[in-house]
Amino acid sequence: MSVIGEPGQRVEQTTPASAPAAAAPAKPHLPWGGSTLLRHLALVALAAVVLLGLTYWLEPFRNYQLATVAAYLCATAGLTVLTGLNGQLSLGHGALMAAGAYTVALTQQMLTDRGATGVGVLVVSLGCGVLVSLLAGAVIGVAAARLRGPYLAGVTLAVALVVPALAITFDGTLGGEQGLSFYVDPPPAALGPYFPYERWQAWLALAGALLVMLLLANLVRSRFGRSLRAVRDDEVAARLAGIHVARTQVLAFVVSAACAGLGGGLLAVLAQSVSPGAFSMTLSLFLLMAIVVGGLGSLAGAVWGALLLVILPELTHLITEQFTLAPATAQRLDGNLPLALFGGTLVVVMIVAPGGIQRVLVRLARRIDPRRRTAPGPEER
Amino acid sequence: MDRFVFLTFDGLVRGVVLAAFALALVLIWRAARIVNFAQGAMAVASVYVAYSVTAATGSYWIGFAAALLAGLALGTLVDVAVMRFVDHSSPLNAVIVALGLVLLLQAVLGMTYGNEYLPVAAPLSRDALSIGGLALLSRYDLFVFAAVLVVVVALALLFTRTPVGLRMRAAAFAPQVSRLLGVNVGGMLTLGWALAAGVGALAGMLVLPTELGLHPNAMDLVFVSAFTAAVVGGLDSPAGAVVGGVAVGLILSYVSGYVGSDTAPIAVLVLLLAVLLIRPNGLFSSAQARHV
Known about the structure:
A: mainly alpha; ABC transporter involved in vitamin B12 uptake, BtuC; 76% helix; disordered N terminus; B: mainly alpha; two-stranded antiparallel ribbon
């Protein structure tokens, strides 16, 4: 009997509690009328302008690194939506990136053999890469929706290990250990004859990354984004609230895989080649490290993570250069020191600061600006 | 037919090693509800210790003992220094921390020993003994069988016949009640980690002479195969781990022999998916209440 009485009681309790929150709109007058899409579009446009200026200011090698960050960002942003917001741990995102990269390589080879040129070729092959990894993600996602926790991690780990095996088994088309190399058109002639190639690469990768960030930012704030979090926090409650749990999980995997495919495709375009060694299990673990250290479940955290993936190896390289080491020792350190740093950081961050860099930054911002204290941003879980 | 018989025996030998490794996974799962994704890297680290000790003393057996001790020590260290501090409210956390350990261990090994394959010698001849005209098992294979058998029997006796084993089971089954009754639950957990890592080190010592050689990533595929074996048997069941290990070993041997050794990882993935989708709790686990 008391069960029937409960809803009424609850309404009475919540109305006064929620009234002050509604009566005190913390938001000032917003020029975009409070539309999430417009706000995100404005942010992306701002970021695009800043980054465009940056590509003119940076030297070619830094532009190439910026392009690499952008390519990683596609993958980390997708992974953080899957792992951070939907609670599905994937150790196979390196493999999904490989799917995108190999598709781009094959399409690019096929199209340039037919004599096609221009930016359109690249767009078509990147689109194919996204499509193939999306399909691969759908297949894995259907299996993943039935698996939980460590089981899912084990399956996706096996997926990550399969890449080299597939490349060698189908070495006729995938090129075995050596992989594939392909031709990418130079920057369009309209940009002038002396346009640096690295700046063009940075533009391509940044365009992809900004597109991914815009789409994911809207997705996260949407009804679907809320379903993702509901499923992560309590599957039973989500089901009772009318959310189709399995469908949400599969969709999350598909979205995440498409982003990883674009990231892998962009990496392949930057290197103009693909090989199984570039998409090893370590890459999958690096992506996981990036999103955890950046801040699990936050898109801003994915940006920090992608930056770390490029900056940390560079930093360790600079440090080892300070010491005069035997060439053999230097070589050992060069490959392994970033790895050790990544692993150590991952363990320490998980234990000491599970919210990662983004959580720390949000806390700092709140300490400096007390107005923010009242409204915990949606970035925070 | 000869080939089939050969592959069967080869698969059995692979299988018992996988069984030992899967047993290590099951030990930690039963004690702490954690799948130790760092098991492979920990085992490789122990084998590197054996490599160094053998190189220094010239005796394989001193190295063998050193590997087991290193495994026990590493397991204790991982629990006391790392896993104890992990927030276990989400099962993802322990997995992520274990993966961090994988990166860390592999990097440290790579820095110390280099990322080349180091040759590992078997202590006994790997030439097959001829029985009735059929070359079946080598002395080393017999040693592998014996070593795994000793470990399995010892663990079974430990858990079913000794007070320590009883306390370990109690600590895993009902931590709060055991603590009230005076069982050192944390200590039992650490002991579980140490034992599991020791068994893992043994499996590493047994498997590496039959593989390409010693390398920081040498156990990656072995780990996934052993995980598959543990899942086939059900993560909760030690007997299941042994049966699952032998089954996976046989399947891998047939696939490598008849299709090609490069396809082994694909076979592992297919097998793992098939088992998880058909019987997620494993073939040997008891029925469980379903969560809605």
